[in-house]
């Protein structure tokens, strides 16, 4: 079943004298339980696509629908995991999560159960009373993920969430993400420019060119759960890298 659908979407900045198109006539969809990745070079509009889907940036033309209903800013059941954690440094981990629960009108009597549950899911059950500055980079990004999951979103939007982590830490947090995703019915739209990451995580990869156009698509049909060191994944990565970067020449 298709949960998210973007139809003939165009985002344009400017006025009557000069305009810039970030993307034009964009069409994409994400099904329930599906992990879809947007893959493209820096500056091609991937983040803008996420912001439009989230209702944070208005479209110039076209529509964004979730479960066949138009997305309305503030009413869309999404979680957003940013590239940087953006945690409130003066609040504990638990209070950072409570902040988003307040924003979606969760009953205060349910705060504790929501916070404990989501921190357990990302392996941070013992850090509820810690402040962000004492956490490692990987732990901070786990809190970022926990905060997005706390509102029980039906769609998770992720904007290069592991790009600032070293590879060893990123690998552990990617696995945390997959462990959570396996046990939910969430749809995920993920942004990266890392082909290895895209192949390891995705069901489908949508390739975006420098003009913001979706010009190719690849289905990743390796069985799950996946071993990040599986030679078959590396072969797929090599093949798609040649295909993708060859198309950008």
UniProtKB/TrEMBL annotation:
Q: What's the name of the protein?
A: ABC-type nitrate/sulfonate/bicarbonate transport system, ATPase component
Give the keywords, sorted: ATP-binding, Nucleotide-binding, Transport
Under Gene Ontology molecular function, one entry of this record is:
ATP binding
InterPro entries (UniProt xref): AAA+_ATPase, ABC_transporter-like_ATP-bd, ABC_transporter-like_CS, ABC_transporter_ATP-bind, P-loop_NTPase
**Which parts of the sequence belong to the ABC transporter domain?**
4-236
């Amino acid at each position: 079943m298709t949960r998210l659908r973007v139809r003939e979407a165009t985002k344009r900045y400017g006025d009557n004298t000069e305009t810039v198109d970030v993307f034009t006539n964009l069409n994409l969809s994400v099904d329930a339980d599906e992990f879809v990745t947007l893959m493209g070079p820096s500056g091609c509009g991937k983040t803008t696509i996420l912001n439009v889907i989230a209702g944070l940036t208005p479209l110039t033309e076209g529509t964004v629908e979730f479960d066949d209903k138009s997305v309305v800013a503030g009413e869309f059941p999404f979680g957003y995991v940013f590239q940087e954690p953006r945690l409130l440094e003066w609040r504990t981990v638990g209070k950072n999560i409570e902040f988003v629960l307040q924003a979606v009108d969760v009953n205060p009597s349910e705060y504790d159960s929501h916070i404990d549950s989501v921190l357990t899911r990302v392996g941070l059950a013992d850090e509820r009373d810690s402040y962000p500055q004492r956490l490692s980079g990987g732990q901070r990004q786990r809190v970022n993920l926990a905060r997005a999951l706390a509102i029980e979103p039906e769609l998770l939007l992720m904007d290069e969430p592991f790009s600032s982590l070293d590879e060893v830490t990123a690998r552990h947090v990617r696995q945390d993400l997959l462990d959570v995703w396996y046990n939910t019915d969430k749809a995920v739209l993920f942004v990266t420019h890392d082909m290895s990451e895209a192949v390891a995580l995705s069901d489908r990869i949508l390739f975006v060119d420098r003009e913001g156009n979706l010009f190719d698509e690849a289905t990743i049909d390796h069985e799950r759960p996946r071993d990040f060191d599986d030679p078959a994944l590396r072969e797929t990565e090599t093949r798609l890298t040649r295909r993708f970067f060859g198309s950008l020449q």
